[in-house]
Structure formats: structure tokens, C-alpha cells
Design goal:
- The chain has one domain: Ferritin.
- The chain is 74% helix and 0% strand.
- It is built from 7 helices and no strands.
- It starts with 9 loop residues before the first helix and ends in a 9-residue tail after the last helix.
């Protein structure tokens, strides 16, 4: 269902659990960026009316998640601050083709893969963490992450043939897997 070409390693899970406060901070940044990306798509492609309401809803939900994660970060004595981002998304977005509508399709599918990876990793965290509130946080976000993944795939399918979308999604997912295999071991949601 998540269209991922690889599974997250046990090493990532151990690193994330050991550095959960950094993961929470990075997670907050990821939620903020996800909201921004949904809005960017609305501004960049206003002629695609089928995008407007679903992406507006995603942006609002991502901001709610941002606030939720901030609450957990603050409960643990942390505060929101700058954090050097993982190179993951920047590298993934390099797969985007230049001409439209290919570029738009690739952006939607990159978002789908990022949401899928988030869902997978949140599931792993919900099983590995011992703090019941964090277990509830991560298990509680799974359905919306999976829904966002499918929404981005469905939006791409509203523009081009589903077979073409599946083929391109597989290619992007394979590249995402390569990016993760080359990533340095630093505690980030997508690393």
C-alpha cells in the first residue's frame, strides 16, 4: 500500500529511539514543511481545481500535526529551534523532470513517497518507544500519513493515466531507497 522499495533498518530505529528529542524536533520541522508544500502546490497549479480543497485540507492537518508534535517536544522540556535538515528531500526532488505536467506529477509522487516513509517510520517508532504518550502520538498519526500518501497518488492519477503514475512512482521509490542507503547516520525522520 505504501509503495516503498525498501524497509527502514533496525539501526535507524535504534538511533531514533536513542535520540527521540532530536527526532521530535525534526518531526516538527517535517510537519511544517509538509504544510508549506501542500500550499505551494495550490499556488503553483491553481488551474487544477481538483487539487484545491484536498491540498488545503492537507495543509491544515499538517499544521495540526506540527502543533501536536510541538506540544510533545515542550512536554519533554524541549523547544522549537533551527535544525540542520536531512539532505533526503532535496536529493529526492532532484528526480523531478523539467517540463509540465511531468514536473507536477513528479512533485506529487515525491510527496507521496515522503508521506509513505513517514508512515512506515512512525509505525516503527510506535512499537519501539516506551513513553506511552509518544507511542500514542506516533500510532495516532499513522492513518493520516497513509491517507496523505494515497491522496498524492490519486491527485497524480487525476492528471495522467494510472499506469503511467504507477510506473513513475516505482522509479521514484527506487531512487528514494538509494538515497536512504547512502544517508549518514544522524537522527532525522528521513535519513
Amino acid at each position: 500500500m505504501l509503495n516503498l522499495s525498501s524497509a527502514t533498518s533496525a539501526e535507524w530505529v535504534a538511533l531514533a529511539v536513542e535520540n527521540i528529542d532530536t527526532i521530535l524536533l525534526d518531526h516538527a520541522h517535517c510537519e511544517k514543511k509538509a504544510a508549506s508544500t501542500a500550499l505551494t502546490l495550490i499556488f503553483r497549479y491553481p488551474e487544477f481545481n481538483q487539487f484545491l480543497r484536498p491540498l488545503s485540507a492537507v495543509a491544515r492537518e499538517e499544521l495540526e500535526h506540527f502543533e501536536l508534535v510541538l506540544g510533545h517536544l515542550e512536554r519533554r522540556g524541549g523547544r522549537f529551534r533551527r535544525l540542520a535538515p536531512s539532505p533526503y528531500a532535496g536529493k529526492l526532488l532532484k528526480v523531478m523532470r523539467e517540463s509540465e505536467p511531468d514536473r507536477m506529477i513528479d512533485m506529487l509522487l515525491c510527496c507521496a513517497v515522503i508521506e509513505a516513509r513517514s508512515c512506515e517510520r512512525m509505525s516503527l517508532l510506535s512499537k519501539a518507544l516506551r513513553d506511552p504518550e509518544l507511542v500514542d502520538l506516533y500510532s495516532g498519526l499513522l492513518a493520516s500519513e497513509a491517507r496523505h500518501h494515497m491522496l498524492y497518488v490519486d491527485l497524480a492519477c487525476s492528471v495522467v493515466d494510472r499506469g503511467e503514475v504507477k510506473k513513475r512512482l516505482k522509479s521514484i521509490s527506487l531512487r528514494e531507497s538509494e538515497i536512504l542507503s547512502e544517508a549518514p547516520a544522524v537522527p532525522r525522520m528521513h535519513n
